[in-house]
Design a protein that fits this description.
five-stranded antiparallel beta sheet; two-stranded antiparallel sheet; 2 helices; mainly beta
Amino acid sequence: MKISEAATKFVAFPTVRVCTEANVRYRGNPDTDSDIWGRLNVGEKVIVEGQTAVDGKICYEISPKNAQDSAFVFGKYLIPYYDNVNTQPENLRLLRSK
């Protein structure tokens, strides 16, 4: 097993990830036929509540800023965000409101 494969198997949620591309669509369901609810841009941080697999590809359930429902984005567009202060569970609510 590669390290990157092992890392995806033991992720604790919620966690914070950052978008790597411009105009990445997030949707109401984890598929490309679902309605587009919004877009993420390069460097935008999101809270990831969980993950699922769609046709063998990781899809993250996210909490978009100022949204009441969770949405989904394909995993290849999000990388881990490391910040020992802002990613602590007690501080995630602050990130949601920004």
